Amino acid sequence: MRIELVKRKEQSRAMLLLSPLIAVGLTLITAALLFIVTGKDPALGLYKFFIEPLTDTWSLQEIVVKATPLILIACGLSVCFLSNNWNIGAEGQFVFGAICGCFLPILFPEFANGATLPLMLLFGALGGAAWAFIPAILKTRFNTNEILTSLMLVYVAGLLLDYLVRGPWRDPGGFNFPESRIFSDAATLPAIGDGRMSLSAPIALIVVVVLAIVLARTMKGFEIRVMGESPRAGSFAGFSAKKLTLFAFAFAGAMAGLAGTMEVSGSLNQLLPSISPGYGFTAIIVAFLGRLNPVGILVAGFILALSYIGGEAVQASMGVSDKIASVIQGLLLFYVLACDTLILYQVRLSRARPAAIAGEAEHV
Amino acid sequence: MFEAVLLTVITAATPLLIAAIGELVVERSGVLNLGVEGMMIMGAVVGFAVANQTGSGSLGVVAAIGAGMAMSALFAFLVLVMVTNQVASGLALTILGLGLSGMIGEAFIGVPGLKLPELHIPFLSDLPFIGPVVFQQDALVYVAFALVAGVSYMLFRTRMGLVLRSVGDNHASAHALGYSVIKVRFLAILFGGACAGLAGAYMSLAYTPQWVENMTAGRGWIALALVVFASWLPWRVVAGAYLFGAVTVLTFHAQAQGFGIPSQFLSSLPYLATIVVLVLISANRRLTLVNTPACLGKPFVPDR
Amino acid sequence: MKNVLKSAVAGLALMAGASAANAADLKACFVYVGPVGDFGWSYQHDQGRLSVEEHFGDRVETAYLESVKEGPDAERAIERFARDGCGIIFTTSFGFMNPTIKVAAKYPDVKFEHATGYKTAENVATYNSKFHQGRYIIGQIAAKQSKTGVAGYIASFPIPEVVSGINAFMLGAQSVNPDFQVKVVWVNTWFDPGKEADAAKALIDQGADVISQHTDSTAPLQVAQERGVHGFGQASDMIAFAPDAQYTSIIDEWGPYYIHRVEEVLNGTWKSHSSWEGLAEGHVVMAPYTNLPEDVVAMAKATEQKIIDGWEPFTGPITKQDGTVAAEDGVRLDDGAILGMNWYVKGIDDKLPQ
Predict the structure, then answer these.
(1) Closest C-alpha among C177, C175, C186 to residue C350
(2) Number of domains, chain C
(3) What confidence category does residue B109 fall into, taking pLDDT thresholds of 50, 70 and 90?
(4) C346 located within any domain
């Protein structure tokens, strides 16, 4: 007996809604089993992991805080991935963007007025775009594989930040500890609400909306999708693959750089040797989980943020180790990805082996 | 002195080499498995645990290979049967592997491991210079080279290699010719998992014989980069792995000499060197395009 | 369907409430930067937590979050504990300093203890240990035992604590052999067994026959064992990994401090302070001296006793690398100078990033 996928004539509307529910259901069952195996109360564990974080305003705000950079970066990445540009170096673009965005408050602390923050955000976006431009240019000019170069540049950006914060950008009043000076209010992103939410959340929301419109309604969006699906057809239509590669990388880099600057300005208030808990990599998952669609990314960002916050909650309150939390997170991703298949395909169990398969045994 | 440095480079390069050669086969079949780090760390913990419980290093190695394969089978089921996105599935595999390995390994923290014995090949290992470098390594160093030679032979000299490459280059026509794309890819992914598991065992049984969480420390990612660096040619993986290992080790020597260069700059050298070499190689457009599996990362669903 | 879901949620909520009811007198919470399984820094802090549990039994409940990254996640982790009813929260990495201060301002009734930082508040104390005291002793041992006159030093990041460690090691070595050499390699990580092993091998190949480390894994000692040279453990006793190679180990002993401070919260006598203690108070402990001749053990023990009796390793004459005087003969460097150290003593063959 074998499992066989049969393509549906059109997307299944029922599955579009049901697939996430099935995935969550499967995750809950596995998580419950994991809790039982490790000797924890499964009902309590599930409640703390998946429900409690949604019931109070503090953790809801924290979910937004965690989701914001993920959504912003994933939006940028979706443009890359849609157009077949495999940028997996958003983490480096995030870091380099933050470096560029934060040189103002660090090197020119006296420059503190209404222009500080807009300039920081601008430099941050430009810096991220510049860092992303390196693999883009290497790809278009020398045909160098962008997966590798963008990934390698992650390490380089991290070490550059490390060098700056431990060396020239060290806080002069900080007893030689590796941290920059703390930013003035003029360089701090205004907070929203009573928690840690800042202006970055609405900015990310605006990006989602604008990107959704651009992708669905404009010529640029059409170009991105056509070049992704069929570069040949695109070039007949007069689109340039090289220009699009540069554009996609620059856009993704700009979003990552913007996210980096806002994270530092709105949440950390200073540069530290490490400023990202892997946002750039997690955002790749968010982009695919959201089916490369801005609205989908919005939802996926929240799901992933919930899995972090919930994982932390069971650790803190029940002593469940963080490894279990990351196992549950990994499984959740697997289930969601697998269940998404049901939207486009039907699963059929068949006993008979098709002739083509039976015949090929002698060749392999 | 040179001999000693070379020995250090060999140990640093071997896990990268083993993991990368496995991933090379996977990618040649048209599948991109970004979960190397996750499979490797599972290999490391299971290899350590079994060796520790049974007292046998070889059993540990076998178990590590099994663990890598089990992880890769999960990945294969998702991307081949459920046609999920390969990039996202691979990343999820890494998250899962890091978590699961931590759970399994909790009991083995702070327990000294046993180190795989070095093979002393009689007579040959007594030769000056060549002896210690070539003939006194642990068995896995030789296994790594045997793997490269075997994979190279298999890919370019056998029918199996031809089928594998055609599946990776054009799965539609391979399918039309009657080959089972899914089956070929499944086997390739399992091979990749076995290699990653073995590389993990090298970490926890030979390189640094101990278990600690996250002990692979990103080497799975470097292995992935090496495959692209090698433009999917097996012997170039050797060159890449040794280059990366050599630059890493030499930066330590440069520091110990007291050159006074910021250490962050030296630490970033292996990555920058990889980029530069890659640009030089890929400037030769003809060669890279020929070897890039055209269907890399593209899902395949047979039309029946 | 909706109703079923609703009642299920209500049921879960009920169970959650029920199990939270078995309240202890105090909840002590810990935030770690690494996994508790690193067998180094975070592992030792968790040993401290376990000794709190053992000492107080049911009176004190503990909780921890591990692998909390320095950066945006830290503030959330700390605030979660503050909201969860923790009476005292230990944040155990330098990078948690500003998040700790921020959260502490919001939760004035909760006590905070931050390790290795310098910012205090009404409800924020800091604590650290004088690890450099141990490093002076191992420097002496290294100089006594080395045949090549060269020691290798695997360093993590150029922060004052690591720099003062290197200096103390060198001063100890120079007290035995004024021409002693120390080769420093920065690996730019606290924890990467492979990299640390490679660094150890490079140092040995360059002539070092004693290896000291300020990184967390046991890998350098294992290399020493394999290559037939010697070394020192870090954070925990690593003798099991290098039975023939480890001379001793500088052990972080956080338990006594944690128990003491939790006790004070229970008594209502807790006050903010900056604690910086060493061998004398048992916050730094030397592992048994092994693989050493008796006279060297005697010397090490004598120095240990001298330090316990109040002597400070950073006592002049100390000359900086650039030739300027750091401390005149008999003058003791003040705590601030040691805690913020960013210069090398004369004789170290390496440059610090400025």
Answers:
(1) C186
(2) 2
(3) confident
(4) no
C162 shares a domain with C76? no
- CATH number of the domain where residue C322 is located: 3.40.50.2300
- Identify the band that residue B278 occupies on the pLDDT scale cut at 50, 70 and 90: confident
- For domain B2-117+128-291, the CATH architecture is Orthogonal Bundle (1.10)
pTM metric for this prediction: 0.85
Q: Assign B30 a pLDDT band (cuts: 50, 70, 90).
A: very high
Model confidence at A354: pLDDT above 60: no
Angle between helices C193-205 and B234-256 (to 10 degrees): 60
Q: Are C121 and C225 members of one domain?
A: no
Same domain, C291 and C189: yes
Whether residues C189 and C72 fall in one domain: no
The answer to whether C160 contacts A176, with C-beta atoms less than 8 Å apart, is: yes
Q: Answer yes or no: are the C-beta atoms of A97 and A253 closer than 8 Å.
A: yes
**Do the domain assignments include residue C18?**
no
Eight-state DSSP code of residue C318? E
Of the residues A333, A343, A345, A353, the best mutation for testing chain B's interface (the one with the most B CB atoms within 10 Å of its CB) is A333
Question: In this structure, are C29 and C102 located in the same domain?
Answer: yes
Residues C254, A14: Cα–Cα separation, whole Å:
57
The helix-helix angle for C72-83 and C97-106 (nearest 10°) equals: 40
At B70 the pLDDT is 97
Is residue A203 within 8 A of residue A69, CB to CB? The reply is: no
C15 inside domain: no
Interface-testing mutation among B10, B103, B137, B208, with chain C (most C C-beta atoms within 10 A): B208
Answer yes or no: is pLDDT of A64 > 90. yes
Residue B294 buriedness (CB in 10 A; 0-12 / 13-18 / 19+): exposed
Nearest chain B Cα distance for residue A214, angstroms: 24
- Per the rule left: phi > 0, alpha: psi between -120 and 50, beta: everything else, C274 is beta
- CB B149: neighbour CB atoms within 10 A? 14
Measuring CA to CA, which residue among B304, B303, B79, B298 is closest to residue B170?
B298
Lowest mean pLDDT among A214-223, B41-50, C261-270: A214-223
If pLDDT is split at 50, 70 and 90, which confidence band does A357 have?
A: very low
Give the type of residue at C42: S
Residue C6 domain flag: no
CB < 8 Å to B105, chain C = 37
Enter the ipTM.
Answer: 0.85
CA separation for the pair B54, A19 (Å, rounded): 44
Nearest to C42 by CA among C71, C72, C64, C75: C64
Q: Are residues C49 and C191 in the same domain?
A: no
User: Does C167 contact chain B (CB < 8 Å)?
Assistant: no
pLDDT per residue over A200-238, tens digit each? 999 999 999 999 999 999 988 888 888 887 778 888 888
* pLDDT exceeds 90 at position A13: no
Domain range for C268 is 24-130+254-277
Query: Residue A277, Cβ neighbours under 10 Å: how many?
Result: 18
Please give the mean pLDDT across all residues of chain A: 87
How much of chain B exceeds pLDDT 90, in percent? 41
Residue C211 shares a structural domain with residue C333: yes
Q: Chains with ≥3 Cβ pairs under 8 A against A?
A: B, C
pLDDT, chain C, mean = 89
Tell me, yes or no, if B214 comes closer than 8 A to chain A by beta carbon.
Answer: no
| Token pair for C69 | 């990254």
Q: Are residues C169 and C235 in the same domain?
A: yes
- State in Å, rounded, how far the first CA of chain A is from the last one: 21
